[in-house]
From TrEMBL:
Keywords: Retinol-binding, Transport, Vitamin A. Belongs to the calycin superfamily. Fatty-acid binding protein (FABP) family. InterPro entries: Calycin, Fatty_acid-bd, ILBP, Lipocln_cytosolic_FA-bd_dom. This is Cellular retinoic acid-binding protein 1. Pfam families: Lipocalin. Residues 7-24 form the Cytosolic fatty-acid binding proteins domain. It comes from Poecilia latipinna. GO terms for molecular function: retinal binding; retinol binding. Cytosolic CRABPs may regulate the access of retinoic acid to the nuclear retinoic acid receptors. The keyword Transport applies. One of its GO terms (biological process) is determination of heart left/right asymmetry.
């Protein structure tokens, strides 16, 4: 069993967030987004998850069951409609996001007492802890 991702997690590092965002949105919002200290709140009941990304500027939340494709609308982010599927790959909770943008997705995992997130889109990879 992978370590639980549940809890409230405050960002301590964020590498190449601007590069990742450049694959998705224009420069104006990126300037604001780059300054944010994001908080993740992750809740789980069985294979049902809720992941909230919270900030002083905007909030974003998704709710899904692992192994089942769901319609994701990235409201307040890049505002795209994508088909998302989240599965466990080893110790990583991994999401594939199929839509207009190629090679889009993310993975969450716990290492020690820290929550990690890798976001990718096109050739860009952002690493958040
Ligand atoms: C995510 O995390 C969303 C995390 O899917 C937010 C990360 C990136 C934002 C994406 C594109 C930039 C678009 C607009 C920037 C404007 C505001 C930024 C506000 C961010 C806080 C909501 C993966 C996973 C589950 O944790 O969602």
């Amino acid at each position: 069993m992978p370590a639980s991702l549940c809890g409230t997690w405050d960002m301590i590092s964020n590498v190449n967030f601007d590069g990742y965002m450049s694959a998705l949105i224009s420069v104006y919002l990126r300037k604001i987004a780059l300054r944010l200290k994001l908080r993740k709140v992750i809740e789980q009941q069985g294979d049902q998850y809720i992941i909230k990304t919270l900030s002083t500027f905007r909030n974003y939340a998704i709710s899904f069951k692992t192994g089942q494709v769901f319609e994701e609308f990235t409201k307040g982010l890049d505002n795209r409609h994508i088909k998302s599927t989240v599965t466990w790959q080893g110790n990583k909770l991994t999401c594939e996001q199929v839509g207009e943008k190629k090679n889009r997705g993310w993975a969450h995992w716990v290492e020690g007492d820290k929550l990690h997130l890798e976001l990718h889109c096109d050739g860009e990879v952002c690493k958040q802890v």
